[in-house]
Structures are given as structure tokens and as C-alpha cells.
Write a structure and sequence with these properties.
With about 400 residues, the chain is mainly β. It has a single domain (about 10-385), classed as 6 Propeller (Neuraminidase), CATH 2.120.10.30. It has four helices and 26 strands. The chain has helices at about 10-20, 130-135, 145-150, 200-205, and strands at about 40, 50-55, 60-65, 75-80, 90, 105-110, 115-125, 155-165, 175-180, 185, 190-195, 215, 220-225, 230-235, 240-245, 250-255, 260-280, 285-305, 310-315, 320, 330-335, 335-340, 350, 355-360, 365-375, 380-385. Strands 10, 11, 16, 17, 18 and 19 form a six-stranded mixed sheet that branches. It has a four-stranded antiparallel sheet with strand order 1-26-25-24, with no helix packed on it. It has a four-stranded antiparallel sheet with strand order 2-3-4-5, with no helix packed on it. Strand 12 (about 215) and strand 13 (about 220-225) form a beta hairpin. It starts with 8 loop residues before the first helix and ends with a strand.
């Protein structure tokens, strides 16, 4: 398994988490967290993202960017009481203070029965072009986006399904690996690489957006996910995917409670910019990189049937989630959470969700969990009431 390439500022973040804090809170440990009313649930130094609900709605699962003694781990699966209280590790036998684990575990999604948990493991990121470290004389340096300079593109992820009562290592879980499109190396007499910065890669690098999250079908036997360029359906345990037609550049899929529809966001591309760069040594051209950067356009909220038919556009929107009865669709639009009827009509903005994303509705339909951007630029988990 390839090692994960971590961003340089992770080391800084680890040090800062030990010696400093955000200006309006005290440094705390897990046992210091006290129950609180509905509203902000977490106050972490890093991002808390991707909330989902337990079967009875008493617990919110989410992804933390480090937690207490695991402050250096980029993705930690967490759980916190929905009424507020002490946050805890969701999989302590996999991620604990005594185990160093450099891979990200993100986007926890339980089955309807809450007996199994699906999540994404980010196995590796792409390093810089090999020429940039192998040669001392360079004719040029390839252009990179500011976000890509901080965090390399995704390279490989895995979807894992684990029973909550499992005690073995991750390797024992039902798993399928996904090669993420965007970068390819072709070592030869001249080492060539082809880099395509698709919109989903730009979102991951710039916003830590988990566009590839998985969503369970109501039967608990299938899942839908995105590889960044299309939707894929996986019959859990099989060795391959089925591609969902008509879902080019589809992201953030969410299977409807009746199983008839999949909501998604399509990341439109309006243009592309192509550049090439030759790395030169005293012996001549030694390496070459070709880059295509796609200019993102609208994020179109859409519906499609699992067989790829019935594609319907519902307007702008991201990160869809269904109400438990399927009567409402929740999504991100204009920097806050909205809800609409399944056909996109009667869309309304949800109060107190400015800066919010990744909505998740409780099993009884009464509460909304989401991640919300703080004034410090990171995200925390919030829970609010949907009752009028």
C-alpha cells in the first residue's frame, strides 16, 4: 500500500494544537466537553465534516481533522451525542491514541439498521512530478493552483464496510479500491506525466470536499459513489462497479429512501487551459509534463434513476441529502442549506445555516446536522431543529 503524502502544514498544525488555541476558547480534552443545547456541537482546531446519523438519532457521526492525541491524523471518524456532550472515537480499535495512522478515514455512512458503517479511506495522494526532485537544472516549473500547492491531487481511495462490532484490522473489512482519475505517469526515455485538474480535484485540494462519499441503497446491499467523473454502483462484496450512465462529472450522490432516484451534483466544466513544461538537464530534455486545467462552471443539482434514465436538473446545488420519508431534498446553495420538494420546487433557505454544507436529516425528520464554517475558516458540526 502506498504511503500518504501529507501537506507540509500538518506538522505546524500538530505543534500549534499543543501550544496554542483559537482566541475565543480554552484548550480542552475530550472529557471537558459538556452537554449543550442544539446548535454548535464541536469546537475543534481543524475541520469537522461529513455528519450522518445513528439509527435512533441520538448520535451524530462525523469526520474530524485530528482529535486530542490524534491531532496529527488528517481524518478521524468520530461520534457525538446529538443533544451535545462528549465526543468520542467512532472506531477506537482502528484509530486510537496508541496507534499512528496516516491515512484519512472520512465520510462515515451507516446502514439503515446501524449495524455496518461505510466510510472512505484516502489511500494516497500524488506527489510532485518526479523531475522536480531528480534534476538540479530546470527550464521551467509547471503551473500549479494555489490549492494544489498545499495539497496534492487524490490518487487512490477505498470504500470500506465495517461492522460496528468488528475488532479486526481494516484489511478484514469488505473493501473495494478506486483509482482516482487526474494524473498519469509514463516513465520512458523521457519521463512524461499528464495532469488533469478536474473540478472535483480542485474542490478536494481547496475545500477538502469529499465529492466521492458513498450512499447506501435502501436494500442495504448496494452503494453509490463517485470517482470524480461519474457515479458508480457497488454491490457490496463484489470486485467491480457498475457505471451509472448520464452522470458525467457527478459528485456527492445520495440514494432516495424509496430507492427510485439518486440525487447528485454535476460539476460542469466550461473551458480548459492546456500547458506543457519541459525539464532540462545539461544532457537535454529529460522530463515533460502536460497539464490540462478545467475551468469549473455551475454545480447543477440533479436527479437520476439508478439505471441512468430520467436525468433531471433541479437548479444550482451541492451535497444533497434526503429527508427520511423522501418528501424533501436538502442541499447546499449560495453558501447555506436549502430544502425543496424532490422535483426542486418550493425551495426555501433554512434559517441559521449560513456558511453551512453537507446536510444530514435525523431519522425522525426533526433535526438537521451539518458542517458550518467558523469565522476562523474551519468547520464545526452543528445540529438545529427543523420544527416550525
Amino acid at each position: 500500500m502506498r504511503a500518504l503524502i501529507l501537506r507540509p502544514f500538518w506538522l505546524i498544525a500538530v505543534v500549534l494544537s499543543l501550544v496554542s488555541c483559537r482566541s475565543d476558547v480554552e484548550v480542552f480534552e475530550a472529557e471537558d466537553r459538556q452537554p449543550r443545547e442544539l446548535g454548535q456541537m464541536t469546537w475543534s482546531l481543524g475541520d469537522d465534516r461529513s455528519p450522518s446519523w445513528s439509527l435512533h438519532g441520538d448520535t451524530v457521526y462525523y469526520t474530524a481533522e485530528g482529535f486530542d492525541q490524534l491531532s496529527g491524523d488528517p481524518g478521524v471518524l468520530m461520534a457525538i451525542p446529538s443533544a451535545g456532550g462528549e465526543a468520542r472515537l467512532l472506531l477506537p480499535n482502528v484509530q486510537s491514541s496508541g496507534v499512528r495512522f496516516d491515512h484519512w478515514l472520512v465520510a462515515p455512512t451507516p446502514t439503515a439498521e446501524d449495524d455496518r458503517l461505510a466510510f472512505v479511506e484516502i489511500l494516497s495522494l500524488w506527489p510532485g512530478h518526479p523531475c522536480s526532485v531528480s534534476l538540479t537544472v530546470l527550464a521551467c516549473v509547471p503551473t500549479r493552483t494555489a490549492a494544489e500547492s498545499e495539497q496534492p491531487p487524490l490518487r487512490e481511495i477505498a470504500i470500506r464496510v465495517r461492522r460496528f462490532d468488528a475488532t479486526g484490522p481494516l484489511e478484514d473489512d469488505v473493501t473495494i479500491e478506486v483509482d482516482v482519475p487526474g494524473v498519469a505517469y509514463f516513465p520512458d526515455s523521457i519521463i512524461e506525466s499528464f495532469v488533469k485538474t478536474f473540478p472535483f480535484q480542485q474542490l478536494f485540494a481547496g475545500e477538502r470536499a469529499f465529492t466521492f462519499r458513498a450512499s447506501w441503497a435502501p436494500d442495504g446491499q448496494r452503494m453509490v459513489m463517485s470517482d470524480g467523473q461519474q457515479l458508480l454502483i457497488w454491490v457490496v462484496g463484489e470486485a467491480s462497479f457498475d457505471t451509472v450512465p448520464n452522470t458525467e462529472d457527478g459528485a456527492w450522490p445520495a440514494w432516495s429512501p424509496d430507492g427510485q432516484w439518486i440525487a447528485l451534483s454535476r460539476l460542469e466544466r466550461v473551458d480548459s487551459i492546456g500547458v506543457s513544461c519541459d525539464y532540462i538537464s545539461p544532457l537535454g530534455i529529460r522530463c515533460r509534463q502536460f497539464r490540462t486545467e478545467y475551468v469549473p462552471g455551475r454545480h447543477v443539482l440533479s436527479l437520476v434513476r439508478p439505471d441512468g434514465s430520467g436525468l433531471t436538473d433541479l437548479g444550482d446545488g451541492d451535497e444533497p441529502a434526503w429527508s427520511p420519508d423522501g418528501s424533501r431534498l436538502f442541499f447546499r446553495r449560495d453558501g447555506r442549506i436549502w430544502s425543496s420538494e424532490p422535483d426542486g420546487l418550493n425551495a426555501v433557505a433554512i434559517d441559521n445555516t449560513e456558511g453551512g454544507r453537507e446536510p444530514a436529516v435525523s431519522p425522525d425528520g426533526g433535526l438537521l446536522a451539518f458542517s458550518k464554517r467558523s469565522r476562523f475558516g474551519d468547520y464545526d458540526i452543528w445540529v438545529i431543529s427543523l420544527e416550525p
